From TrEMBL:
Any one Gene Ontology molecular-function term assigned to this protein's record: hydrolase activity
Signal peptide stretch: none
Native source species: Leptospira noguchii serovar Autumnalis str. ZUN142
Entry-linked Pfam families: CbiZ
Keywords: Hydrolase
Claim: Hydrolase is one of the keywords in the record: yes
UniProt keyword Hydrolase present: yes
Protein's name according to its UniProt entry: Adenosylcobinamide amidohydrolase
Length: 228
């Protein structure tokens, strides 16, 4: 179930999941997870002096959140999330994505301090349990699918087409049960569904971001005082 309320987006699991990620909160290999949370922040909230981990934990305390969760930070409107669910042969893959490309870069670009915020946060949930090794392979597929979707958006950096943002984050979740799944490469059904779901959801997220950005620019242009 997905729930959006105020500055929070929640993906709640019907049973505990193991989650592999490098999320701000709960990163690494985390077991018995109940939910994955997105928290929306404003540019002013995360200045260089603010530790994002401390900020997130303080926000959780304010929310009175006590569940075992994994947490993303984002600056994009949470209602612009995209979701793709694919199912075949009793295997279900769900990809939930928020996309902001204000912080977009091309892989290998020199490090720099961006004046704008934006990130791609991806949660992929699998209906069957994956062990750690298989989850690592799933993360590689998610990364590849995200990069393809971003490349096809044809957004330019100073050195070429951007491949993501400087702060992208990925989480892969599967039920906390014993697993016999050893592989999930592109020749497997699970690999196929993971790649397709992520590609479609990130592509839709990019379209949502472009639409939101265009709307904001139109409002700003309309509100600018006109010379007499």
């Amino acid at each position: 179930m997905i729930r959006v309320k105020s500055s929070w987006l929640e993906v709640n699991f019907k049973e505990p999941h193991n989650v592999l990620s490098w999320a701000v909160v709960g990163g690494g290999w985390k077991e018995q997870v109940d939910c994955v949370l997105w928290h929306r922040v404003q540019d002013k909230d995360l200045t260089l002096e603010v530790d994002p981990i401390d900020y997130f934990y303080r926000s959780l305390l304010h929310k009175k959140e006590s569940r075992n969760g994994v947490g993303f930070l984002t600056s994009v409107p949470l209602e612009n999330y995209s979701e793709v669910i694919l199912e075949k042969q009793n295997l279900k893959i769900r990809s939930v994505v928020t996309v902001g490309l204000g912080n977009s870069v091309r892989i290998g670009d020199p490090p720099f301090q961006s004046n704008s915020f934006g990130t791609i946060n991806i949660l992929v949930q699998c209906s069957i349990p994956f062990e750690l090794n298989t989850s690592l392979e799933a993360i590689s597929l998610i990364t590849e699918a995200r990069t393809l979707a971003v490349l096809e958006a044809k957004i330019q950096s100073k050195t070429g087409l951007v491949t993501g943002t400087g702060t992208d984050c990925i989480a892969f979740a599967s039920p906390s049960r014993n697993s016999t799944k050893r592989y999930t490469g592109k020749h497997t059904l699970s690999g196929h569904l993971i790649g397709k779901a992520v590609y479609q959801s990130v592509s839709q997220g990019i379209a949502n971001w472009k639409k939101s950005k265009f709307k904001a620019e139109e409002i700003k242009r309309y509100e600018c005082p006109r010379s007499l």
